[in-house]
Amino acid sequence: MCTAIFLHRVFPSHPVVVAGNRDEWLARPALAPHEWTVRGEGSPVRIFAGKDQREGGTWFGVNQYGLVVGVTNRYTGTRDEDRASRGQLVLKCLAQDSVQDLLTILTPEEATRYIESVGFCNPHMLVKDERKMNLRRQFFKEFFALLETYVVNTSAPVLEAHRTIK
Question: pTM here?
Answer without folding.
Answer: 0.61
